[in-house]
Write a structure and sequence with these properties.
The chain is α/β, with parallel strands linked by helices. The chain folds into two domains: about 260 residues, Rossmann fold; about 110 residues, 3-Layer(aba) Sandwich (Rossmann fold), CATH 3.40.50.1100. The strands form two sheets. A seven-stranded mixed sheet has the order 1-10-9-8-11-3-2, with helices on both faces. The protein has a four-stranded parallel sheet with strand order 6-5-4-7, sandwiched between helices. Strand 8, helix 11 and strand 9 form a beta-alpha-beta unit. Helix 4 crosses helix 5 and helix 9 packs across helix 11. The longest helix has 17 residues. The site of pyridoxal-5'-phosphate has 21 residues, from helix 6 and helix 11.
């Protein structure tokens, strides 16, 4: 399925609030916070000339977020950043002065953080980030997971010292349950999705993601003409597209939002022209994108900045994982988890379809940016779908 954005707000400027959330100052702050994390390193940006050739485009760059902060996904940038921010704000209130990130490990701030509990619902990756952030500042975290989250993913969250609450039901139900219990107990919800009256903290989470754009633009020979962004609730796509629009203005790339056909809440929202919750379908292999209601903030941004919405199928996602594991020519091998390559799956579909190519203006001069949003965050599942262990993938392609 493919749909051009015909919303009346399309190409209108971002609201003042969203422009602040995703603007230069916020992105700069997110980058500065990262500097205070032990395992911080810029993630690699790979050129894939052989695949670009095959797709009939000028250049293809893939930013590999599988390497982010030891967590295996870009989510490491959002939840943990919001937790750090919220602890410093609370410390500021209690100490009666502004408290800088450089003081994060001071005795005063630690004592305040120790009394705070952060909660969230997750498909896996976001919860890992919130748990890591809480561990970093010495706070408590309680992570709500639904019945579809694999034991391997749950164990990876618990490793950061989080308390896990497993609920019956799906992601959206776990979001509601986390919010309900947190309100009852006085915990702070750090959600990656937003709803009426709850926008600021998901905004901080999104602000954390803007670092991806800053790093990518620094390394790309020229800014991209097109970007394909995978979406669950849309926070990732909105943060990346929104920051690109702020930095590049009219020269921003054409933005296509890509979702699994089985969980296309933004596609249906775009079709309806307003946020809609969609009916539940069969589980998708793109487990991190399995969301049935868009984030309110994300939709507000994407209704203005996204140029097209499309879906990909289960086979497309698995095909991309395999293609990146065994690339053509001298392209580098990339470990891409089940949800990580959905944007690339969208590009491959679009590039092979005459009408979609024309609608997106995709041609021999196009320079496309893709973000591999996760590595093998569930290594067992990865090996099953690719027929190789994650470490075998990159080892095989090392230069002799
Ligand atoms: C690997 C991966 N890619 C993409 C997404 C989509 O992000 P969002 O839900 O903000 O659209 C997620 C969300 O969990 C994710 O884990």
């Amino acid at each position: 399925m493919f749909l051009l954005n015909r919303h009346p707000d399309h190409r209108q400027p971002l609201t003042q609030q969203d422009a602040v959330t995703l603007g230069l100052a916020g992105a700069g702050e997110a980058e500065r916070f990262l500097g205070h994390r032990d395992n911080h390193a810029e993630t690699p940006l790979h050129a894939l000339p052989a695949l670009a050739d095959e797709l009939g485009i000028r250049a293809l760059h893939i930013k590999d977020e599988g390497k982010r902060l030891g967590l295996g996904s870009f989510k490491a940038l959002g939840g943990a950043y919001a937790v750090m921010h919220l602890v410093l704000e609370e410390a500021g209130r209690r100490l009666g002065r502004s408290v800088d990130v450089a003081e994060l490990h001071s005795a005063d701030v630690k004592a305040i953080a120790a009394g705070m509990t952060f909660a969230c619902a997750t498909d896996g990756n976001h919860g890992r980030s919130v748990a890591q952030g809480a561990g970093l500042v010495g706070a408590r975290s309680v992570i709500f997971v639904h019945s579809g989250v694999s034991n391997e993913r749950v164990a990876a969250i618990a490793r950061f010292g989080a308390d896990i609450v497993r609920i019956a039901g799906d992601y959206d139900q776990s979001v509601r349950e986390a919010a309900r219990v947190a309100a009852e107990r006085g915990w702070t919800v750090v959600s990656d999705t937003s709803w009426p009256g709850y926008e600021r903290i998901p905004g901080l989470v999104m602000q954390g993601y803007t670092v991806i754009v800053r790093e990518a633009l620094k390394r790309m020979p020229k800014p991209p003409t097109h970007i394909f962004l995978q979406a669950g609730v849309g926070g990732f796509a909105a943060a990346v597209a929104g920051h690109l629009a702020i930095v590049l203005g009219e020269a921003r790339p054409t933005v296509t939002v890509v979702e699994p056909a089985r969980a296309a809440c933004l596609f249906e929202t775009a079709k309806a022209g307003h946020p809609v919750a969609i009916a539940h379908s069969k589980p998708t292999v793109m487990a991190m994108l399995e969301c049935y209601e868009p984030s309110l903030v994300a939709w507000r941004v994407l209704s203005r900045i996204a140029d097209a919405f499309m879906t990909v199928d289960e086979d497309d996602a698995v095909g991309v994982m395999n293609r990146l594991a065994r690339p053509a020519g001298n392209d580098p091998a990339i470990v891409s988890g089940e949800s990580g390559g959905a944007g690339l799956a969208g590009l491959i579909r679009s590039a092979g379809d005459r009408e979609m190519r024309a609608a997106l203006g995709l041609d021999a001069d196009s320079r496309v940016l893709i973000i591999n949003s996760e590595g093998a965050t569930d290594p067992g599942r990865y090996a099953e779908l690719v027929g190789m262990a994650p470490d075998e993938v990159t080892r095989e392609r090392q230069p002799a």
